[in-house]
Amino acid sequence: MNDRGKIIFGLVVFIVIMTFPLWYNIANSKATYRPEPEILTKGVPGKEQCVLPTLEMKEQHMNLLNRWRDTVVRDGKRVYASPDGRKMVMSLSHTCMDCHSNKADFCDRCHNYLAVSPYCWECHIDPKELPR
Amino acid sequence: MIEKALSGDKRYWRWLAVLAIVAFVGLLCYLRQLREGLTITGLSRDVTWGFYIAQFTFLVGVAASAVMVVLPYYLHNFKIFGKITILGEFLAISSVVMCMLFVFVDMGQPFRAANMILHPSPNSVMFWDMMVLGGYLVLNVVISRVTLTAERNGVAPAPWIKPVIILSIPWAISIHTVTAFLYSGLAARPFWMSAVLAPRFLASAFASGPSLLILLCLLLRKVADYDVGKEPVQKLAVIVTYAMSLNVFFVLMEIFTAGYSNIPEHLEHFQYQFLGLEGKRALVPWMWTSAGLAVLTLILLINPRTRSNETLLAAACVAVFLSIWIDKGMGMVVTGFVPNPLGKVTEYFPTAPEIAITLGIYAIGMFLVTIFFKVALSVKKTAMDAE
Amino acid sequence: MTIDRRDFLKGAGVAALAIAAKPALDIVTAATLPEESPLVGKRWAMVIDLRKCISRKNCTACITACHKTHNVPDFGNTKDEIKWIWKEGFEHAFPDQANEYPDEALKNAPAVLLCNHCDNPPCVRVCPTKATWKRKEDGIVMMDWHRCIGCRYCVAACPYGSRSFNWRNPRPFIKELQPDFPTRTRGVVEKCTLCEERLAKGLLPACVEACEEKAMVFGDLENPDSEARKLLAGRFSIRRKPALGTQPQVYYLV
């Protein structure tokens, strides 16, 4: 094959370009970066524990919020009975944000890392972000 | 067979390039609309459907008009239409695609469009409209592909396609009836709530669609060296004549009912269209142009001597197309909102971005028509050479 | 170990199903929080005494209260305008009561207009996604702003002009953001929802509470002892466009 050199060169260039995100992040130590969300609001009475256990919330909070949304808006039922027997109002802006009030230090840390932009905040208001 | 669209002369590629540029400009305007919202259109709280939905309504009619060549050929063995059924089907596909694009750009939250499928609402005519339009698109894609492939291979198409083609005939009627039902079932809009709206839609569809087809056939003779013959064009012209006469008759029926009963709720809309209401007269010159063109077309088409003169026929077809485009598009859609249910007059006229997006979608439609017709003509010419 | 293509595909399909079929989240709801007692009614309606309303000239208390509570934007032009409740001259509010010689007091008097929460709502019938529906438990015609695709069919179908569309992003045009209620986003239709979120907390609708003349009475028509029913039994009332069969649930005492 006369073109063997050109073909192999082309293949190498292609592989380098296509795997750019992988080796660039490894080279810049960004591959080992893990987002660490922080809860900065301390001591909200009666709310030492989140709605569900942490691991379940990590996996399911999107599902939970979707189901809460449909239950409040479409079924008109506002009070959630959590598996551990507590009752709370199903509200992102209040029940969730009462404890996770620093959206930038908590929610946004993981969301920005994963390039996820939930559109909840186009309508729902984070009480802490109101202009003072 | 799509590879046949990839070979063409310089005029072909220049034409496609122009269309691509117009479509691109439309796309840029649409991106602006996505960012800023539909406020960049001329729509308002009182007039919530305008230019986009007007084009949608008109083009559903053009899409349905394929039945006017399919029905005689397949149901009644009218062999004269043999060279143009595929053109009618390809025109239908392009029109349905344009319809869907117009609905998409009109939506406030287009990326939630799947909600119509995830949460089906059979009580809503819009749900059914989406169903029948989608089905019609699938039908025409399947039919055109199967018949054209068979022709390319020099054999008869598989027999199972015949019932599918027969199905497309009532389906075509249904798409435009359902679109009319979007309007004619609304108690809130007395201008639209008329039993004759669906027949009127169908009549205007069968006038505007075939007249576009005639113009395309005459054009193909000039630019693509493809002659369907004089007879199919004349037969189509007869169809346009009858359909346009019916359409004008139906419009006059509506005007009589509103005018003679003198009920303000019904009459005020026609007053706005032809005389102006409370000093607002944006649509008046357009409606009189449409009426004048309609009269002109009837004179040219009913007289067999002018109808058989292809230059005059072409002029008549342009006039039919424009007259119905005005009357069924802006005329019908916008006037439904003027005056509003509280009797107040708010005018509407499309803005520049709105027109740019509209032209962009028309460019996409014409792009599709061009490449589809290129494919069809390549196949047909090869078949003709082989004879 | 060699497996053939068919078996591989079968195995992959089963694995995909197993991953996809995670147990769904169970949302169990409780009746109410202990400290709340919501207002409960089977068929909410509004009775508006026009005489009391027009006794106060240029009053817009109900409109201000509603639009503030619900973060309704003010764009400053009628093209993009959004209104949940507003005042309209009598002859425009009740065009089917066309009268060349009306009662002098009612002539040019403004009537307060809002969504009628019809018993037979045409907007609900036309919505292709069920983003608007009539609640079975209390008759409120509700909006789901998450589901609305912005087709504006409901706006075309409403005979009363009660619905507004967000032609642009409303946030910059809201004077005082109320954190207790969300705003809406551009591209969805909105209207009065009879303050269902306030009813759940045992509060009257904002407009009813704000009216100092007590011209607006909110009540359950299925309860024969409600003030609304008593008012309707004692005085002549009209509704907007009754001939259309929509059965509007906003009654006007003239």
What would you note in describing this structure?
The complex is a heterotrimer of chains A (132), B (387) and C (254). Chain A is mainly alpha-helical. Chain A has one domain (34-129). Chain A has helices at residues 4-18, 20-27, 54-75, 92-99, 107-113, 120-123, and strands at 79-81, 87-89. In chain A, strands 1-2 form a two-stranded antiparallel ribbon. The mean pLDDT of chain A is 85. Chain B has 387 residues and is mostly helical. Helices cover 73% and strands 0% of the residues of chain B. The model of chain B has no long low-confidence stretch (mean pLDDT 95). Chain C is built from nine helices and eleven strands. Chain C has helices spanning 5-20, 50-54, 61-69, 90-93, 122-126, 153-157, 196-199, 206-210, 227-234; strands spanning 29-30, 44-49, 85-89, 110-114, 132-134, 141-143, 164-165, 189-190, 216-220, 237-238, 250-253. The chains are: A mainly alpha (132), B mainly alpha (387), C alpha+beta (254). Chain A binds chain C through residues 60, 63-64, 67-69, 71, 73-81, 83, 87, 89, 93, 119, 122-127, 130-131, and chain C through 24-25, 27-34, 71, 133, 135, 137, 142, 144-146, 177-180, 182-185, 196, 200. β1 (79-81) of chain A pairs antiparallel with β1 (29-30) of chain C, so a sheet runs across the interface.
